Amino acid sequence: MLARLMAITIKEFWAILRDPRARIILIMPPLIQLFVLGFATTLEVKNIAVGIYDRDGGRWSIEMTQRIAGSPNVVAILPISSPEEMRQAIDRQQTIAVVSFAQGFSADVAAGRPAVVQAIFDGRKSNAAQIVLGYLNTIVADLGAELSATPARTGAIVNHWFNPNLLYLWFTMPGLVVIITTISGLGLTAQAVARERELGTFDQLMVSPLRVPEILIGKVIPPVLVGFINATIYMVLISTLFGVPLTGSVPFFYISLLLYLLALAGVGLLVSSLSQTQQQAFLGMFLVAVPAILLSGYASPVDNMPGWLRILAQGDPTKHFLIVSEGVFLKDMTVPDLWANTWPLAVIAIVTLGVSSALFRARME
Amino acid sequence: MANPVPAAVLSNVSRRFGKARAPALDNISLEIRPGLMTGLVGPDGAGKTTLIRLLAGLIDHDEGEVTVLGKPATEADRKRIGYMPQRFGLYEDLSVIENLRLYAELRGLPTGKWDDRFAELLRFTDLGAFTERLAGRLSGGMKQKLGLACALVETPELLLLDEPGVGVDPLSRRELWAMVRKLTEAGIAVLWSTAYLDEAEKCEEVFLLSEGRLIHAGPPGDLTREAAGRCFRMRGDGPGKRRLLAGLVADPAIRDATIQGASVRFLTNAGASPPKGAEPVPARFEDAFVDRLGGGPKGHSLLAEHYRAVPENDLPAIEAHQLTKRFGPFTAANGIDFKVPRGEIFGLLGPNGAGKSTTFKMLCGLLTPTSGDGRVAGHNLRHSRSAARRSLGYMAQKFSLYGDLSVRQNLNFFAGAYGLTGAKRREALGRMVEIFHLGPYLRQNAGGLPLGFKQRLSLACAVMHEPPTLFLDEPTSGVDPIVRREFWSHINGLVEKGVTVLVTTHFMEEAEYCDRILVIYRAEQIALGSPDVLKRDAATPDRPDPTLEEAFISLIEASESKDEAA
User: Is residue A15 situated within a structural domain?
Assistant: First the structure.
């Protein structure tokens, strides 16, 4: 029994390490995602050009323009001389926003009358436009504050808990651990059975005295271990290289990780048992992985989803593990809170592994 | 007779894949002439497909010249060439008629001609009743016929057929052959590639390839003649034939020996006189081929020598009791019933889809029978599947070990899967490496081994745990005759030690090695007996000594006419 289990586990390890396709799943997605999520999908808006449609041409409109040009996020000012030009500049994406000063703007300011600045944004980039609006508001408010005599300003004092400076890396990186684990865990298990089918070794395996549980355990252990190693590497990288604080219980993170990987392995084996070829398994994996990630709350909060989707998301292991990961990294989540998001993983793992082994048996013939 | 202008000419052509490897084609010169059935013959990996792809203009050559229909092959008019690849020739998700339409479109056949041409092709291939069936659902033989029809959508001047006989049972192969034959009569140049040496004999001209080299070019008779007068047959009753074979192989005067039913057929060295009691038989193409390759392998099976003796037992080693398998309304095997005693080679023979694979799979535990029972080494396959599996070694039709794993990793895995541990495993591994000369390849990927070594490794993995029964699925189709002889010498040796072997095949050469054969047709068993009995039963006054293939075909025809009468 143990000898057989050892044999198949070692074989599965070799299958992963020596199969070029499996090696790619092992190395490429984590690297690409680290790169993409770490550097490319920043939520800050930098390197923008702002159009200025200055019909005023007075002291204060020039002062504003200079302040906008001086902002570290703005690289260029695009002078605009007609509404038509403004339309084109936004349409052709030469600029994300155009600030328009009406005639008499400087006169209004000088006279102490309320002066109005119009800003037009590219609604196609709604998120970035919001952020640029924020920048512009700050500039306008600063100018206004300097002009008015009242030194103290009223207004809300914003304090972001868990991520006081709203560093986008703090937000994306704990999610990255989850995504990497998901892709490698699903990818490797999805290939496990389909590979045997495609290469014609399935029958050879099935006539050997290996029992179904032994085969399935042998196929689950290597991806789980790979998941552990991946998660550990990225946990260290994220807390050192990217400086995201690791505040919560690391041992509990690993318990959660193990259950999450088992749940994924169940889903992966399910996809694999249904696939005839590795290609099908590969596509099948994405069929599962994309909704799992989208439903997890990684891209948009689960609370904003319609009710039926929120219920569906409860069955998504990624959702639970994402909460654990963010909790352990940023929130110093307490063990009872972690546990509340860990036991569902255990339930999901039991269900997916159970269904996949039933399906494996059914599809043996 | 033959048109003097050849349809295709190769002169001093070489082609390599990768610098380090031996050339796939090594300095080949040949001519394919119209109106002739030209055979391109050789074992798997000999270079047949490479040569055909060169002719079809799909790949370029490294040296020499390839001329097709008067132009370099890559510039030749593709409309005048019909090409039927070995695989991927058909769109399995399209119906028969859709496949034809697609090819007609690709070939630019004017739409007005479609209906007439399709009707003609469907009549020719006898597929008229199946026009709406998906190509993927056709039997192996019908697929090949459809493939041929697609290659013939526009009548070509040169027809290239890449192993049309593979995966096709003898009956369909014969029909396919007759169809192509008709084409040569119409003046088309046909190149028929095959690994079956008996097909070579029926060609007018043969190019025999071995490891990329051209061994023979010309009428097959020219080569066969080299072995003429040196072929003999000796009877050896029952299991005695295997001892007789072992004796003949050891004899330095004998160049090659194989089992043929209850007899041993052998080729003597030139000038040597045959042993007493030998009856001369006509030489075959294969005799001369093996002669050219330097004769069959000498020596006895080391594998068998080191194998444990399987204890005597009154129980049958393999037993099928009224085995039936239904897939929905379709009955794949019906009431299959036989017993194989210890130390026998038992063959399952039948056309594609007849139920022999289903029976085979039920007996090795890959399929659960709908009703009936199977036993292997006394273990019931329903109740003690794992015990039954431990007592069988399995070798699949195609190489089915882990190609990405090294030879050593494969051996280690199968040793472990069969429960060998520690010293036992090391000992078994060492023995296999020594017997099959795997030493230099241990670290190499199994998928990259030469074909002969793949075959050896498959056998090694199947017998490492010394099972009392062996299940072989077309173990030697396509391998070169030397490797095949070596393989069967191991099997024969194991049988002497009491191992029981179940073979499924539609390859007559393999069937000849069986002690008894069960013929399955349309899910029913229609005949059971030794090869000699089957041949004798098929003998007619004008065909007193039929081959096993002829016997097989006449059995099937008899069964068909009985069905029709009923």
Answer: no
Same structural domain for residues A129 and A169? no
**Contact between residue B349 and residue B552 where contact means Cβ atoms under 8 Å apart:** yes
Place of tokens 């003949």: B248
The segments of chain B whose pLDDT lies below 70 read: 1-4, 20, 88, 238-239, 566
Identify each DSSP E strand in B149-308 by its residue range. 158-161, 189-194, 205-210, 213-218, 231-235, 254-260, 263-268, 279-280
Block residue for tokens 């070489």: B14
B502 at A interface, C-beta within 8 A = no
Averaged confidence pLDDT in chain A: 84
Looking at chain A from residue 30 to 89, which residues have their Cβ under 8 Å from any Cβ of chain B? none
Q: What is the dihedral of CA B64, B70, B71, B73, to 10 degrees?
A: -60
Which chain A residues are within 8 Å of B415, Cβ to Cβ? 7
In a shared domain, residues A200 and A329: yes
A3–B contact, CB cutoff 8 A: yes
pLDDT per position as a tens digit, A259-295: 999 999 999 999 998 888 888 998 999 899 998 988 8
B503-536 burial string, b = 16+ CB within 10 Å, else e?
bbbbbbbbbbbbbbbbbbbbbbbbbeebbbbbbe
Under the banding of pLDDT at 50, 70 and 90, the label for residue A192 is confident
User: Does residue B289 lie in a domain region?
Assistant: yes
Q: Is A300 helix (H, G, I), strand (E, B) or coil?
A: coil
What's the confidence (pLDDT) of residue A259? Answer: 92
This prediction has a pTM of 0.80
Domain containing A76 equals 48-147
How far does B249 lie from chain A, in Å, by closest CA? 33
Instruction: Note whether A195 and A100 are same-domain residues.
Output: no
Cα–Cα distance between B278 and B255 in angstroms, integer? 15
pLDDT at B394: 92
Q: Which of A7, A18, A19 sits opposite B413 (nearest CB)?
A: A7
Task: Please name every residue paired with B521 in a beta bridge, in sequence order, or none if there are none.
Answer: B524
Sheet holding B330-340, edge to edge: B330-340, B318-327, B371-376, B379-380
B405, A199: Cβ pair inside 8 Å? Answer: no
Count Cβ atoms below 10 Å from residue B362 Cβ, excluding itself. Answer: 26
Q: What is the pLDDT of residue B455?
A: 87
| Structure tokens given for A123 | 């609604």
Distance of alpha carbon B465 from alpha carbon B276, whole angstroms: 41
Instruction: Determine the residue among B361, B402, B472, B474 to mutate to test chain A binding: the one whose Cβ has the most chain A Cβ atoms within 10 Å.
Output: B402
pLDDT at residue A166 tops 70: no
Q: What is the pLDDT of residue A164?
A: 64
Tell me which of A147, A177, A208 is where a domain ends: A147
Model-level ipTM above the cut of 0.90: no
Query: Are A130 and A173 within one domain?
Result: no
At A65, give phi and psi (nearest 5°).
-60, -40
The Cα B4–Cα B35 span in angstroms is 10
> Among residues A170, A318, A161, A323, which one has the least CA distance to residue A239?
A170
The answer to whether the CB atoms of A207 and B364 lie below 8 A apart is yes
Higher pLDDT, A224 or B128: A224
Q: Which residues of A touch B400 (CB under 8 A)?
A: 199-201, 203-204
Q: Do A201 and B401 touch (CB under 8 A)?
A: yes
CA angle B116, B120, B125 (to 5 degrees): 150
Q: Provide the b/e sequence for A57-92 (b: ≥16 CB within 10 Å).
A: ebebbeebbebbeeeeebeebbebeeeebbeebbee
Question: Which residues in chain B touch residue A8, judged by CB atoms under 8 angstroms apart?
Answer: 413, 416-417
* Domain assignment of residue B532, given as a range: 313-387+505-565
